[in-house]
Amino acid sequence: MEYSVVIDAGHGGADNGAIYNGRKEKDDNLRLALAVGDILSRNGVDVTYTRVDDTYDTPFEKATMGNNSGADLFLSIHRNSGPEPNTSKGVETLVFNNSGIKASIAENINSNLSKMGYGNRGVIERPNLVVLKRTKMPAVLVEAGFINNDDDNRLFDEKFEETAQAIAQGVLDTLGETKVSEADDENKMENEIYRVQVGAFKNLENAVLMEQKLRKEGYNTFIVY
């Protein structure tokens, strides 16, 4: 059976993500996303990317790209960052909830990366992340080490191909064993919409500034007059 995967390189464009000593998360994300996608493609998986260059789309737009693709899995690639340099390290994979095929994929990815030397910080539920909540297919977000940890960066650079292979293999092993079902994430309630007002302003400029700030955080916003 042929599977299809959407690969999302986190951040992009004006959104650098985390930065450490001039190293930008968006660049590491894209490089790793393309490498993982290449391995999956060579193993018969139909791969689509949310970006292949230094461009920015909101998380809502990325989730929409995934949904429109009809893919079996949404795989988002990121790198983590701690409050202080060299205080946190290791990999973790985020999921909407820790159940179903997405949980198995997350566990396999973490296990493969830990065998390479990355610390395994586990599978973590993050139900409020847009790319995990609004995608109709199972979705996982891989935090491939801490960008402000020198040991993780050294491992990322020196074993880059092995890192990409570990992530791709986690996907391949799981997809080969389990049939992906859209019902896996039926509790996302994609058809329900909740509207939240965050402010009321007499000055239009202040309203626009707030909207721009929220869009940078990934929220789909609009101004009502």
Descriptive overview:
- By secondary structure, this protein is of the alpha/beta class.
- The chain folds into 2 domains: 185 residues, Aminopeptidase; 31 residues, no CATH class.
- The strands form 2 sheets. Strands 4-1-5-8-6-7 form a 6-stranded mixed sheet, sandwiched between helices.
- The N and C termini lie far apart (52 Å).
- Identify the strand order in the major beta sheet: 4-1-5-8-6-7
Give Rg in angstroms.
18 Å
- Percent of sequence in beta strands: 15-25%
Mean pLDDT: 89
Kindly name the structural category. Answer: alpha/beta
According to CATH, what is the class of the largest domain? Alpha Beta
Instruction: State the distance separating the first and last CA atoms.
Output: 52 Å
Q: What would the principal axes of the Cα set say about the shape?
A: globular
Q: Give the H and E element order.
A: EEEHEHEEHEHEHHH
As residue ranges, the low-confidence spans are 178-193
Going by CATH, the homologous superfamily of the largest domain would be Zn-dependent exopeptidases
Described by strand count, sense and barrel closure, the largest sheet is: 6 strands, mixed
What is the number of E strands?
8
Helix content range of the residues, please?
40-55%
Label the CATH architecture of the largest domain. 3-Layer(aba) Sandwich
Q: What is the count of DSSP helices, taking H or I runs of 4+ residues?
A: 7
Number of domains: 2
CATH topology of the largest domain: Aminopeptidase
